[in-house]
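Sanity check

After download, print the first record. It should look like this:
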Amino acid sequence: MNKVFSVLKGTAAVVLHFAHGGLLAVGLMVSVFVVLRVAEAGLTPRMLPSLPEFSLLGSAQQVSADTDLQMPDLPATGSGVELTAQQKTVADHVSRRHRVARAAVEQYVTDVYAAASRYKLDPLLLIALISVESAFNPTAESAWGAQGLTQVIPKYHPEKLALFGPDASLLDPTTSIFVGAQVLREYIRLSGSVEGGLQRYVGSIEDPDQVYSNKVLAEYRRLSATFGPRLQTAEVAL
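Expected structure tokens:
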């Protein structure tokens, strides 16, 4: 009887050993899965890496031939910049709302319209994004490493930042606006919609409530209602 009991005890020990090992393995796999899902879902804001662009027709674009990876023609700077009537009204609105010096805002608005024209975006959408991201504070930095007016994380978009020189910084307003516009246009094209592009921009592509895109688009609608319909050249290029 004692012999039978010893055998049963030994067998139980072996079973428990493997069960424990199996549970440990399962636990490790679950941990890895959770980490991957968190990264993919964007629970760490703006942590998505730059992805290669694909047209909605399914053909990949060659990076070497992509005009986005060429140095953009930057707008003029300084007091000699002449704004359009709409740009002046937008600059006045931004200056008052975010309490930023009018002279600085005029240059930001000039850059926004130039970047929007190059990357086929609505300039008011860029204005709305910057309002939400940094409230037009060019030195804004987040705990996650996002910098500047458009709050882009530089290490995820080095090829875009490099267009502005080896010492380029996203704390430079012009650089931040042009890089942010390019990132947004890329993400809109990847997602197939403005809403999806905005969610990817903030790193929350799986948010069912689309909180971020709703916030930016609500600001965009307010701007559109105030400053009129978007320009013919400002259509988002998908």
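If your output differs, re-run the checksum step. Summary of this record's structure: The helical segments are 2-41, 85-98, 102-118, 123-134, 158-161, 173-191, 194-202, 211-227.
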